[in-house]
Amino acid sequence: xxxxxxxxxxxxxxxxxxxxxxxxxxxxxxxxxxxxxxxxxxxxxxxxxxxxxxxxxxxxxxxxxxxxxxxxxxxxxxxxxxxxxxxxxxxxxxxxxxxxxxxxxxx
Length: 107
Prior knowledge:
The chain is an all-beta fold. The strands form two sheets. It has a four-stranded antiparallel sheet with strand order 1-2-5-4, with no helix packed on it. The chain has a three-stranded antiparallel sheet with strand order 3-6-7, with no helix packed on it. It is elongated, with a radius of gyration of 23 Å.
């Protein structure tokens, strides 16, 4: 409640409760397999009800296939012996955001 001489009194209230977020889906990776010009890896706990956003620090990242709860990725376009870090983030309404990183190296 507020008041000031010469003005009408006013009051305001806020009620309600926040719904806690459900736990994040943190991506789980296979061990990266080095190949000529890049590497391959999998996310072994893929869930199609979540949005997966993947980025790489170098080269080109592509989804190769998805089979059940396994999504296979490939990083290409790397120079021999160079590495790249892949970050995969997950999101879904009502859930905390998840994120994990993996570093692989080309042959």
